[in-house]
Amino acid sequence: MSEPSIFTRILQGEIPAEIVAETENAFAIRDIAPQAPVHLLVIPKTQQYRNVVELAAGDPDLLTEVIGLANSVAAEHSDGDFRLIFNTGEGAGQTVFHVHAHVLSGGLNEKSLGG
């Protein structure tokens, strides 16, 4: 069995983090290195899926729940407009291989996509 991910360890209370919202199967925390005025992570409670492609194939209902929670935290912590990002693979910037969504908001524009 693989080691618990940092997100599993947060959920288990081993690592401190501010959980800003939670559903039966997912939770949301503040990113420790924010890339926008509002930068939250929405994470399934299971670490069964490494990335969003695996999650979509394996449990589309859980993916729907993650997106719904992202929408809720964006409405609560910003004006409801948000960018939702899933990094899939090391080459795309994924560093924790426990699927999670980045919710970014606050003064973003199309040119803030990087590059």
From TrEMBL:
A motif (Histidine triad motif) lies at residues 98-102. It comes from the Bacteria. PROSITE patterns: HIT_2. Residues 6-113 form the HIT domain. InterPro entries: Histidine_triad_HIT (IPR001310), HIT-like (IPR011146), HIT-like_sf (IPR036265). It holds the Pfam family HIT. This is HIT domain-containing protein. It comes from Microbacterium algihabitans. The lineage of its organism: Bacteria, Bacillati, Actinomycetota, Actinomycetes, Micrococcales.
